[in-house]
Amino acid sequence: MSETPSNDPIGNTVPAVGFFDSGVGGLVVWREFVRLAHEAPTLYVADQAHVPYGPRSPEEIRRFAEAITRFLLSQGAHLIVVASHTISAAALWPLREMFPGVPFIGIEPAVKPAAARTRTGVIGVLGTFGTLNGPLMARVVERFARQVQVIPRVCSGWVEQVEEGLLEGTEAEARVRQHLDPVLQAGADVLVLACTHYTFLAPLIRRLIGPQIALIDPAPAVARRAAEVWQACTQGIDPRASSHRFLTTGDPARFQAQLRRLIGWDGPVERLYWDPQGMLRAA
What we know:
Helices cover about 40% and strands about 20% of the residues. It starts with 15 loop residues before the first strand and ends with a strand. The longest helix is centred in the first third of the chain and has 17 residues, at about 60-75. It is an alpha/beta fold. The protein has a seven-stranded mixed β-sheet with strand order 4-3-1-2-9-10-11, with helices on both faces. Strands 6-5-7-8 form a four-stranded parallel β-sheet, with helices on both faces. Helix 8 (about 170-185) crosses helix 9 (about 200-210).
C-alpha cells in the first residue's frame, strides 16, 4: 500500500524533501541540494542516539530507516533522500518496496568513476563496515570494477571523529593516516569516499594525499539527482520562501553547534525520541 504524507507542518504547498542519516554526514548532501534547489523546503533527521550505524546489523538499520521514513512522511516530506551509504546499503531497496508511492534517492560507493579514472589499476574505497561488506558494494564492484583491483578500507572511528568535530590538527591527521596509508601503500591512485561523514575530512585527506591521488566524493551527484527529482515534482507549482527543519534524537544543543560549525546554519533544532515500540516521536 502506498504511503503519502498525512499533513504538512511546514505549511507549504511545495513538496518538502526529507533527509536522514545517523548524524551530520548527510549534511553534505543537504548543503549541495539547497544550493541547487534553494526554494525547496526540507527536513533533516539525525539519529544521533544511534550513531554510528556502520557496525550495526542490516536488520537494525532497516528498522531505524523505516521509522524515520514514517516520521518524515507524517511531517510533510514527499521525497526522501537517504543521505548515507550505510543506510542505503542496508535499507534503500526495502524502503522502496515498503513505500512504493514515495521517491527515494540513495547513495552507493562511486566505484564506477573511480575504475574509469585509475592509471595504476588500483582504487581505494573508504567506508564503514556496513557499506563495504554488504551486497550493494559487491554489486557495484562486479558491475564496474572487474578489471581493476579494489582495496576496501573500513575506516573505524572516522564517523565518531567527524561527530566530535575533529577535522584538523595533529590528532585528526594521525587518525586519518591510520586508514589512509595502507591503501596508498597498496598502490591506489584513486580514493572513493563511501561515507558522507568523510566528506568533512576531505580537506585534510586531500592535503595528505597530494595532487597526484584523485579523491571522489559522490555527495554532489546525489544532491543533483535529488534536485532533478524535486524539480520534476514541482512543475507548475509557484515556490514560496523555503523553510528548513533540523531534528535529532540526540542532544539538540550539540547538534545546533555542529550545524553552525559544519554548514553555517544558526537556527533552531528540534528534539526527537524513540518510544518503546521503536517509533520516532517529537519531544
